[in-house]
Design a protein that fits this description.
Layout lengths: L5 H12 L10 H11 L5 H22 L10 H10 L23
Helix pairs in contact: 1-2, 1-3, 3-4
Length: about 110
């Protein structure tokens, strides 16, 4: 089975993002276009997982902050975190966390 092209990825993303409550600062159409261009080579299942990951990041933030989950909306930072955690974009150097604990003073 062929992987979806950019318009196909946009349609898939639109389908999976539509039911999610997004922050009012997000333009849903622009977001779909942007994400479709960033996810070349992704399957439909991977795009669904990207959307689910952004929703999970949002819920984790709600739990940490003590806010009721129903008051939260998915914002750009949740989507960016999902993109980074799934390897679609690289984290900024100051955001990189070693997988193996390194004693203080041993980095650099």
């Amino acid at each position: 089975m062929k992987l979806p092209n950019e318009p196909g990825r946009a349609a898939i993303l639109q389908h999976y993002l539509k039911p999610l409550r997004q922050d009012s600062s997000i333009d849903p159409e622009a977001l779909v276009i942007e994400l479709a261009s960033m996810t070349d080579g992704a399957s439909g299942a991977e795009l669904e997982f990207l959307c689910q990951t952004a929703a999970r990041v949002c819920m984790k933030e709600a739990i940490r902050s003590g806010l009721p989950p129903e008051s939260m909306t998915i914002c750009r930072s949740h989507i960016e975190t999902a993109l980074i955690s799934l390897g679609y974009v690289a984290a900024a150097p100051d955001e990189v966390v070693p997988l193996i604990p390194v004693p203080a003073g041993r980095l650099g």
